Amino acid sequence: MDNQTDSRSQHHELFLQEIEGIDEYWGPTFRAIYDGDEHQKFMERLDSRIKSHDKDIERMCNYHYQGFIDSIRELLQVRSQAKSLNSEVVQLDEELQASAASVVVKGEELVQARRVESNIAAAIENLSLCLPVLTTYAKLQKQMKEKRYYPALKTLEQLEHLYLPRVANYRFSHQMKENIPKLRENIKEASMSDLKDFLENIRKFSPKIGEVAMRHTAEHLRSDLGVVGKKKRQAPAPPNPFTGEIDYEPPAESTYDAEEDLSAQDLIDFSPVYRCLHIYSVLGSRETFETYYRKQRKKQARLVLQPPTNMHETIAGYRAYIHGIVGFFVVEDHVLNTGNGLVNRTYLDEVWNMALSKIVNALRTHSAYCTDATLMLKIKNLIMLFNTTLRNYGYSVNQLFDLLHEIREHYNEVLMQRWVQVFREILDEESYLPIQVSSQAEYDNVLETFPFHDQALEQLSFPKRFPFSPLVPKIYQQVKEFIYACLKFSEDLNLSQGEVDDMIRKSTNLLLSRSFSGCLSYLFRKPSLALLQVIQIIIDTGYLEEATVYLEEFVSNITGAPKEGHMSGRSQGQSCMFRVARDDAERQICDKLKRKLDEFLELENYDWLLVEPRGHASSFITDLIAFLQSIFLSFTNLPPEVAQEACKSACEHIAKSVLNFMLSDDVKQISMGALQQINLDTIQCEPSEPVPGLQEGVLLQYFADLRQLLDLFMTWDWPTYFHDYGQDNSKYQQVYPNTAIILLDKLREADKKTVFSVLKKSERDKKKLLETVLKQLRQLAQTAQQ
Question: What are the start and end residues of every segment in region (Disordered) (predicted)?
């Protein structure tokens, strides 16, 4: 029990200490007191403690009370002294304020002045920071106005990164900073606008650049500048190879004398390209710029490569086209070397390859329309200079050289057409009479124009007569002129002597065998051409064929090719050079001879009921034979085969005509006397050898049909005819039953006209025999048809 009381007392003492020691939070202590259900006893203990403290306080107050009273008395004394001191301080303050009033005014003025001075210093400092910004901005505006875009871009970078950060606290700097992208875009647009102007100008200026570049190349090669549209001042233009005249005409528009000594690159300012490239490179858009530039230049290339529609008409059209192309690629070559990678070799080769095919096609197409050999020669020289110029800039021009070889073939064709006109003019003006000279000078003049040697002719006295007409030396000289013209185009084409020689020989051969022969064939078809003129033309062609040997020697001399190996391969075909023309001439001789013979044959005046023959040839036959003798005499200088063919044709025509006289439907009756007269005329027409070289009996073969028919009726050898009919060795093999029937019918009709023939027994027997022969002939005819 005592232990519990002590424990409780200890707890209460602990609670009291907590209350005394803690001034702020007593909640836990009070909760502990109430939780123990002894709060009443604690209250008693608390009252006891309070009373104990009250006693202590009372005891202390009693101890210090006298000292407190003493302190109050001292304090009262000090208060009076303080009031006195306060009065003195107030008085001193008033006196001090009165004396310091002017100092305060001056001080305020000084403070204000210091403030203004500080503001001025701050303003100067801030203006010093802003002034470079404003100066740089003004500089930027000036550079843009002057179109100095690349320096403007550098100035803009300096403004953005160096000066604007120093004035970042000012509003205008924010405005400037916001405008910087717009300024950059303005610079890009302005530089691009300059580039577009440059591209437009360079498109118009390219022909001028190309002309200057080609002129420089021509000067370097010591070539004729007339090819590029300007006459060289050191030497005149070369003469026309066809006329011998200087046919160069300077361009109507003035050329660029002031820039004559400048290079092509000096004629144009490339700074817009470089400037725009630098700007786009700095702005990180180089690839965009390269793509745009190349795309635009490709478009311009396509425009440049479109030839004028009438380019083939004059050399000026070719010049303009070629100059534009050269100018374009000279510009691109310059950009390649100075453009810092804007144009690379791969791109340039791609554009050139694209352009090369178009150039070749355009030149091939338009040159094919050209029919002027002089113009084609100028075109060739222009293309040669074009090739050399572009090759000097590193472009491949092999296809253009191949094109020149194609144009050369067309040029040769044009030359042939031109010489066709020359030949036709010569043929139209020619009289086709042998050349006759009356002096040695005239004789030598003919030999100078045509290589001819005849010992027999040289020994004759004047006047002398050549076997050929003036046509031969004229044609020979024109062929030589043609060879010179062919050679003119082959110059500078890098062809070997053998190639040039072979080309000229082939062209010359075509000229004679095709062009000249064609002119002759055209001439032969003219009705006005007489038979003797045709004969003389054939004689002339023979001498021209013989002269081809000298033409080959002439070609070898001017080309420098060796003579060996050409003659042997060609001599065998020379006789065939005018084969077509000679065949036409032979046909014309035969046709004209037949027509002339028809004129005599139309004079036929047979009395078909003639009782007895006249005993001599008919008059028209006598005239015909006289005509043939004179014609065959003129065949002396003809090639033997031509004369022989004409003779054969004449004999065949006469034989058929006489046979047709007898078999004609217009002739209803024929007497034996008329047949005997025809037999007599036929004997006169059967020649032996009117022209040399004919085999014996050849011409008689053409009279075989007529002769066998006449022999059969003259001898009345019908038993032999019927016996040998169908056999190869038959005497009357060429007599057909139908032909014999026609003639017998006409004989029978003639006998009917004889009134007293029926009274004679011999006539009656002959009539029976005639009927019998007719019957047998009709049977043979039916058998032959089956």
Answer: 229-249
